[in-house]
Amino acid sequence: MSSTPLFIIYGSATGNCETIAKTLSSNLPKKDAPFYTSIVTCEGNSFRRKCLGYWKRPTTGLYPVLIITSTTGNGDAPENIGRFVRFLKKESDQILNNLCFAVLALGDTNYDKFCASGKIIDRKMNELGGKRARKLTMADEATGLEDVVDPWLETIMKDVENNCGRVSSALPLPEIEQVSNKIELDALSKGGKILLELTKSHNISIPTNFSAKAVTNRTETEPVTRDRASSFSTMSSASTCHYNINNPYKAQIIAARYLTNTKTSQEFKGLKCIDDRFSSDNERDLKRVIELTLGMPEDLIAEDYFQPGDSIGLLVDNRYTKEYSFLMSWFSENGISLKQILKNALTVEESFLNVDVTGCVRKPLLLILSQYATNSTDLLLLQFLSCKEGNSIYEIFIKQTSKNITDMIQLFSFKVIDPQILFDSLQTIAPRYYSIANSPYQSKLSIAFSCVDFIASNTRKHGLATSFLEIISSQFLFSKETKKELFLNIFPKLSTNEFRLPIDTTTPLILIGPGTGISPFIGFLNHLQQLDLLQQTNEAQTNSGTWRGTFEIQPKNLPQKNLKKDMLLFFGCRWSDHDYLYKDELRSFQNSNYISHLFTSFSRDTSNKQYVQQNIEKNSELINSLLDQNASIYICGDVKMAKDVEQTFCNILNQKVDATLNIQEMKKKKKFLLDIWN
Question: At residue 464, does pLDDT exceed 80?
Fold first, then answer.
């Protein structure tokens, strides 16, 4: 057989698809299999370097290709498969007629464009000559991925073999070594006792064998690559911005402040101080929102870096997490040198800075951990957790309590885990994206974020990124002393150019942004104000005829003729005296007539909870009058809120037209725009 690899390509934003792809790859024979000679597993953006050269060569039968991808934002492809999607979209010839393919798409039906990336890839690969080994398979995160993903993994190889024109008898995947289901009560670890109590209370029996596959010896595989997405255009084809996820800009932290009414002290030294200063028993202490202001690159024009409505990507690491400190101590105590070099040419302590040790432990890792259990009971229970029969207990024991790798080490009895194997089994820390809350003409970059701080199973936990940002900006939040120079790695997020101000500045706007969903609208308002300042500056230059300098113009001097009149803004939060974000700024914009109507809702001020959708319904007459004037609707915030708000608009519009069809038509025309997250 000529060299015919099996290609497993993934597009992953949070790491799910990467894990599925690499788990499948690790459980397959690496070479001399019945219908392929090797396995190429890579992110979609590496397709030109790792795949395309093969696909252009004639071969006996067809090249087998598996695509596993998620969808991000409002129908966007993950960044690390974006190049592959753009390649498929622009091609028209039958360039993939050497391929036999199958697509597994992960999505969430809470979003409008469910599995949009997978649908595009499946359709275009077929149009470009590829042969489907199986029709598009879509898994819904809202109802649970395992029910779709597990059967796909178990059967897809047979379908690919049957359709790629290489007749042979496929080798079955080896089953995991069967273990006894006899529970040794005297050997139970703390985690084992909890699990047994859960299975008993939920009337679940532990079977004698499992559907999980054997764990390949990961130390024999090639090093796990941690590629970031390649360079991409951020604004348009004309953009000159050269910063991207692989070449981030090192932005200096200029300022930081709590947007919430959060009381601070003078002393602050890391995560322990957060726990000491902010009580886990005080709901307001746990609700903290920070505005972080960063410097802009000096080597390009600000408008080439971002526009109002865009998001910025931040790269963070584990340096401040309790989990990283615990793991490094655990390795050291068990005789592992933190200076040991792994296959990525970095030390143990360097390598684990950039993999997620704070997120929920995933099933493939549970199966690997089972191989290091020091007693048969823990081995049995961990294997049970990792298989589909253990789905309900996994949901309760792992997901609902946010258990991570260090929680598992503390709950179960393990031999020391090979750091290379553990590193290979953990996901790269994904970039975090935040809406920009200012205008590019302000020569800075501001974001707002909620600090993730919660109690799970009597343990206080913090978000990896938000705790990193709170700690690194703490000298601005807690201290009045001279500030040290501190930097963050940032890059512009690939923009679809949708969630932006309309070109026609007379278009009425209806903005809905509760919580930190207000951020892009603060950016809109700042930008409109800056445009007026810029116009007044230009008029001053024209009128003087000789002026060439610069000066700062205060908002009170704005020319009234350029101010926007028709803008409704709906904001909501818990307490009017605690997390009313940008309260002073919003009132100032309203007083300056940038906001014609500001509607606020507070859910915790009284027993009668108020939400933005109720205010929208109360003002349906005003909203309908603006919609008759071709108004644009923008919604920013969490997906549940967005669905409730969209339903409220349906209720309003139902009085006049077929609301569902009308909103769908508005979305097609970019008049009903969403920037939402789960």
Answer: yes
Q: Tell me the three state secondary structure of residue 362.
A: coil
Buried b (16+ CB within 10 A) or exposed e, 12-35: bbbbbbbbbbbbbbbbbbbeebeb
Q: Which pTM was predicted?
A: 0.84
What is the Cα–Cα distance from 608 to 629, expressed in whole angstroms?
34
Q: Taking a C-beta distance cutoff of 8 angstroms, is the pair 214, 252 a contact?
A: no
d(CA 673, CA 497): 11
pLDDT of residue 211: 55
> SS3 for 633?
strand
The stretch 150-163 carries a mean pLDDT of: 92
Report CA torsion sign: 5, 11, 16, 18. positive
Buried b (16+ CB within 10 A) or exposed e, 168-193: eeeeeeeebeebeeeeeeeebbebbe
In the DSSP assignment, the letter for residue 563 is -
Query: For residue 100, what are the β-bridge partners?
Result: 64, 131
Q: Where are the alpha helices (DSSP H) in 184-336?
A: 190-201, 271-277, 283-286, 302-305, 322-333
Read off the pLDDT of each residue in 462-489 and give the average, rounded to a whole number: 89
Residue with tokens 């104000």: 529
Neighbouring CB atoms inside 10 A of 545's CB total 6
Could you give the CA distance from residue 529 to residue 524 in angstroms, rounded to a whole number?
A: 9
pLDDT in tens, 517-548: 999 999 999 999 999 988 888 777 776 654 44
DSSP H or E segment with residue 448: strand 445-450
- In degrees rounded to 5, what are phi and psi of residue 136? -50, 130
Taken in order of first residue, the domains within the chain and their CATH numbers are 5-163 (3.40.50.360), 185-222+321-425 (1.20.990.10), 249-316+430-492 (2.40.30.10), 509-677 (3.40.50.80)
Q: Where are the alpha helices (DSSP H) in 183-292?
A: 190-201, 271-277, 283-286
Residue pair 677/639 in contact by the 8 Å Cβ criterion: yes
Residue 256 CA to residue 124 CA, distance in Å, equals 46
Q: pLDDT grade, residue 109 (50/70/90)?
A: confident
Q: What is the pLDDT of residue 230?
A: 33
